[in-house]
From TrEMBL:
It comes from the Eukaryota. This is C2H2-type domain-containing protein.
């Protein structure tokens, strides 16, 4: 009989992803990482492109055309011979 089903996955561990404070059991944590960090669960708030969570920051800073806060420094590097 499970009481809560939450502590059934082993010792709770903290998610190691940057900025993520989730703490849960091993199996749940794996699933959490898959669902929240590794899958295409995130979309860019500006252009709605679906992204891996760990690619969002790169996308936002370099690739997103719709992001008003994008760094524009890269533009001059466009020449490539
Ligand atoms: Zn996490
Ligand atoms: Zn975007």
């Amino acid at each position: 009989m499970k009481k809560h089903g939450l502590l059934d996955d082993g010792t709770p561990q903290r998610c190691g992803w940057h900025g993520c404070r989730v703490t849960m059991g091993g199996r749940s944590l794996n699933r959490h990482v898959l669902m929240n960090h590794l899958d295409f669960k995130t979309s860019c708030p500006y252009c709605k492109l679906r992204l891996r969570t760990d690619h969002v920051s790169v996308h936002l800073s370099k690739r997103c055309r719709a992001n008003p806060a994008k760094e524009v420094k890269e533009v001059k590097k466009a020449k490539r011979v």
